Structures are given as structure tokens and as C-alpha cells.
Amino acid sequence: MKNHSSLALSLANQTQVPPTKRTWTPIRCATVLACLLSAILVVLASFELYTRFWFGSGLMFVAMLTGVVALWTINQAQQSMIIPILWAVAALGLWCADASAVGASYSAMIWPLLGAAAAGVSLGNGLAASLCVGVMIALLSPALPPPDARSSDGLAEFSTIVVSLAITGAMTLATCLRVGGTIERVRATAQAMTQEAERRRDLAQAEAHFIQRESQNRARFMAEMSHEIRTPLNAILGFADTMREGVFGPLPKGYEDYPSLIHTSGSHLLDLVSDLLDMSKIEAGRYQVQLESIRLDQFLFEAIALSSGTAQVAGVQIRHEVGPAIEVMADNRAMRQIAFNLISNAIKFTPKGGLVSLRIRLDAPNGQAVIEVKDDGAGMTAADLARVGEPWSQGDHEERANSRVIRGSGLGLAVVKRLIELQRGQFWLESTLGQGTVAYVSLPLSTKALR
């Protein structure tokens, strides 16, 4: 946000000049010139006996002097209204002072428009002022003395013509300078914006490169740490099994339950480390799947066999309805992990004496095979379902689930979802609070199954 503000401020400084800053802008130069020339007309009028010349010269001088003061004291918003009006008044004064030239009157009518353009304010105000000049000329013409009533000595006769042409030329030059300066500022602003866009692009590329490098470093760290943790952890589990089976004799009284507790906690930690490793590989894009035609039932049977011990300890019954063999396009290693994670998750949140049901069904119209893993556990709320698949997210089972439940890492279903997506499948849950949860896995059928 700070960068955006500084950029806008720098661009604004390039395109605007504070009105109070004493710089000689084109409109200020032209207005001072008009004031000096109108002062000369006033001096010339002092040698004449012509009332119209006196009135016109004085009106023009007062208007231009007021314009000089306004250009150095008020802001641009106020100038947009005042400057065209003052130049219109000066135009009327020049026309009144002019005794003979129609061209001078024409030049006087376009003065407000040129003044507005040179000042960089609304051209609509200048156009309105010019129209007012034309109306005022039409109204004042009958009331003023005729031009030929003027006595002249030669110089005064052409003075107003010279003044009109000089100021009109000066205003035209001022307008051209103003437009040219605006174009240069626009070009400079566009160049600054281009440079800023390139700078932001370079920053975005550097940030993306940094994020990619951080992701790779994190994946490498997780892989190394997981390996370092799993090696001693497997040894701990092996020693716990040795003590639990009493290979070297029975344990002392009071220590009989410790090997089982060590094995349970170590297995939970091993699952957590495995999920961490898999998630880091998936997020880093290093988890490669090899899609081939495989049978779904074999993976469910393997997962049931691996989970049977956990289910027996938890007092949970596993029932399957596999049906006929169905082949899908999937990865062997990923499917083993998906089946094991889903069954383990269902057992974890099923109370003692509960049931976990497995089913494979064919969705022939859509060319899909669907695996259903159902439990009759605590269920999930709508908020829990919305977070499914997000790493580290867990449902609120603390009050609803049985006391046997061990809170997991929140990675199990996230790993399942990512692995299914890598195999071009879909994963979703349906759950009712207090009535259990059903996990669905949909995978494309193999070409053999579609025949």
C-alpha cells in the first residue's frame, strides 16, 4: 500500500505545479504581456479626446491586472472560473478601444478560449466566455460612439490593432507551449509507469523464485528429517514388539503394558512422519504417479489386512462389499496409501462396538468406479466438511468422539485428496453429526473395463 501511495504522489508531482509556486507558466507570461500592452493603450488614450478609447483601454488594463494577481494568488480550481471571465472582459475592452479593425474584434472574441487553453482549465468555460463576448459586442455596439468619431494622430489609430494581434499571437503561442508541455508530461508519466510496471514484474519474479526455492528447501528438509526420524523410530517399534512378545523372558510386574503403549504411540508418530513426507513431496511436485490398469479390490483387501489388528484392539468390526473385480487407471503405491488412510481414519473415529463398511460400485454412465468407506462414528459438522482436504485441519471431535480417539495431525485426508487428484479422480465426504461419515473416492475406469 505504501508503494502505491508513493507512486501516485510521484506521478501527481510530475503532472501538477502548485499554484503558489512562483514559476513563469505560459498563461502568466501572456497575461503580463497583455497587462503591459493595455497599459500602453492607457498611455496612448491620455493623448486622445475619445471617450470610447479611454473606456476600452482602462477596462482592458483593469481586467489584465486582475488576471495577473489571480494567476499568482489563487489555485487552479478557482482559475478555471476566473481566468476565462477576466480574459473575456479584456476582450470587450480591446473591442471598445478599437476604432476600425474588424479583425481586432474577431481576435478579442477568441481570447477567452485561448486563455482557458493556455491556463489548462476547462475549455467549456472559455467557450462560454467567448459567446458572452459576442453577445456583449452586439449589445454595446449601438450604445457606443461610432468608430469614425475618433480623432487620431496616426499612431493611436493602429495601436489597438497591434495590441490585438500581439496578444492573440502570444496567447496562441502560450496555448501551443501548454499543449506541448502536457504531451511531455504525459510521455514522462507513461515512461515512469512503464518503469514501475517493469520493476514490479521483476519483484514478482524474484518473489516467485524465492517462494519456489523455499518450497524446495522445505521439501528437502522434510524428506531428510522424516528419514532421520523413521530410522530410530522403526528400531523403537521393533524393541517394543520384542518386549511385548517376551522374547527374552517376561517383563517385571508393573511394566507389562508399557511395550504396547510404546508401540501404539510410536506407530502414531510413524504415521505422522509418513504423512508429512508425502505432503511435502506433493506440494513440491515431487510425488510422481504412474497410471496403469489395476484392480481396486486387491488394495482394499490389503488395507483391511493391515488394519485388522488396529480394528481388533479398538473393538471395531470391518465389513466389505467388494463385488466383482473392477479395474481403474491409478497408481499402485498411491492407491495402497489411500485405502489404508481411509480405513485407518474410519477406525479411529468409530466408537467401540461400531462398524466400518467398505464398498466398491460401478458408475458406468460416467466411466467411473467409486469406493465408499463408511463409519458410524461422531460425524462432522458443515464447517468440518468445508475444511476437508486442508492440511492440518481437524474436526472438533473432543466432545463428541469416544475417549479412545487419538487426535491426528490433520494430514491424512489432505494426503488422500491430493493423491486422488494426481490420479485424475475425485474425493468428497458426506456426513451427519452423530450418525457417521462416508468417504467417496471416484476414479476413471481403465480401457479394459470400458469394453
UniProtKB/TrEMBL annotation:
Pfam families: HATPase_c (PF02518), HisKA (PF00512). The keyword Calcium does not apply. Its EC number is 2.7.13.3. It catalyses: ATP + protein L-histidine = ADP + protein N-phospho-L-histidine. It is an enzyme of class 2 (transferase). The chain crosses the membrane at residues 29-47, 53-74, 81-104, 110-140, 161-181. Residues 187-214 form a coiled coil. PANTHER family: OSMOSENSING HISTIDINE PROTEIN KINASE SLN1 (PTHR43047:SF72), TWO-COMPONENT HISTIDINE PROTEIN KINASE (PTHR43047). This is histidine kinase. It comes from Candidatus Phycosocius spiralis.
